[in-house]
């Protein structure tokens, strides 16, 4: 692995780690949750719109994007003009399965054991608070990282397939993914389902999964990225 490629992975990883360590050390996780928790009422702001809508239907754009990638991949075997988009289409499907699916929800969420804010004693629950760097008992607490935020951050997928041939549109896709993932994560924070650090790590893990697949699928090579939008 070249120094430049190593740095491309290490810089976002270190940035996420440093940010979340600073937030946790300052008590921001508990402080933010405390601002949103109402004794006797729980987490009332999370039932307002658009947070309730996002909780129930916010995964639809990610599913639609993944399904579109699957359709293009299948059609690329019978439609000649879609052949050059085959690798990028398969990347989108794999990114959805690996990032929000395997890495966030299976590897970490199912095994990290961090109790949700709504489950800890400070907010009416029975579990002890755990900082993000201190794993608990697998299956007893599914706060770290945020699954809903992860499917929101997945909307950045076009960033990777366009970053070489259409950097302008790629940056817009990255911004859209960060914004949507942030909104999904904010909704879950308001509902007592996650801490701020859960959301930040969700974004970092999704980005790194996409970056790994970007190089695995050789989307950095000429001729493997999707055609850029017109205009």
Structural features:
231 residues; mainly alpha
What do you see in this structure?
The chain is mainly α. The chain has one domain (3-216). 59% of the residues lie in helices and 0% in strands. The chain is built from nine helices and no strands. It has helices spanning 3-25, 28-36, 51-57, 60-75, 86-109, 147-153, 157-162, 167-190, 196-216. The protein is globular and about 60 Å long. The mean pLDDT is 93.
N/C terminus separation: 36 Å
The count of strands amounts to 0
Structural class of the helices, strands and pairings? mainly alpha
Written as H for each helix and E for each strand, in order along the chain, the element string is HHHHHHHHH
The poorly predicted ranges are: none
Largest sheet: none
Shape summary:
globular
Q: For the CA atoms, what is the radius of gyration?
A: 19 Å
Overall pLDDT metric: 93
Number of domains: 1
- Name the beta content range: under 5%
Number of helices: 9
Give the helix level as a range of percent.
55-70%
